[in-house]
Amino acid sequence: MDESPKQLIREARSSIPMKPGRDLRVDYEYIRHGVCNDFMASEPLKGKRFTAVTELKTRREWALFIKRISDEWYPKAKKITLVMDNYGTHSAGSFYEVFSPAEAKRIWDRFEFIYTPKHGSWLNMAEIELNVINRQCLSRHIDTIGKVKSAIAAWQKDRNNKNQQINWQFTTSQARIKLKKLYTST
Fold first, then answer.
1. How far apart (Å, rounded) are the C-alpha atoms in residues 4 and 127?
2. Which of 50, 57, 127, 174 is most exposed by smallest CB count within 10 Å?
3. pTM of this structure
4. Rounded alpha-carbon distances, angstroms, from residue 18 to 6, 15, 23, 152
5. Residue 31, domain CATH
6. Do 33 and 142 form a contact (C-beta atoms < 8 A)?
7. Which structural domain, as residue segments, surrounds residue 45?
């Protein structure tokens, strides 16, 4: 699981359309319309990913996204393993701020949270998927959160229908070598 901000940007001037022998001409000026947040959860071996676009990136949005993973996408799973970074909102406290204590505990207990090392976010496969979505879907100016939601939903449906898996080639022995400097020997 990971999240990524997306600037909402509108063109300041209309583009000049393509003509035979001439590319589309886009002015560099733009008007900023705020930011939205894209949450991404990925099941790399099945080639499935789940997204949610929110206006904010707070404890509330994170807790609601995790609840969706638990109750909508994996309601029958006994335990859900979720790899993510150690961002400040990614804690049990977020659930207790948003839900009743019993509900917060129920959701928290459904997961095994694995936090990537501080400088090892590249170990999170959802981050790879966010890079793919940014290249394939969001690498243009989009001015409203509704258009971002629509674009991401279409991308997710297409990618999930193709069962696009992540070809993870990083081995345990490579990880031990690469991460050795992050851990002190005793």
1. 9
2. 174
3. 0.83
4. 27, 9, 5, 26
5. 3.30.420
6. no
7. 2-182
Q: Are 101 and 128 in contact (CB under 8 A)?
A: no
> With b meaning 16 or more CB within 10 Å and e meaning fewer, what string describes 165-180?
ebeeeeeeeeeeeeee
Structure-block tokens of residue 9:
């940007």
d(CA 148, CA 5): 11
Calculate the dihedral angle through the C-alpha atoms of 10, 14, 15, 19, rounding to the nearest 10 degrees: 150
Assigned token pair, 54: 């929110």
DSSP, collapsed to helix, strand or coil, labels residue 131 as helix
Structure confidence by residue, pLDDT tens digits, 8-29: 998 888 888 899 999 988 877 8
Do residues 117 and 123 lie in contact, with contact meaning Cβ atoms separated by under 8 Å? Answer: yes
- d(CA 80, CA 73) in angstroms, rounded, equals 11
* Separation of alpha carbons 91 and 121, rounded Å: 17
The total of structural domains in the chain comes to 1
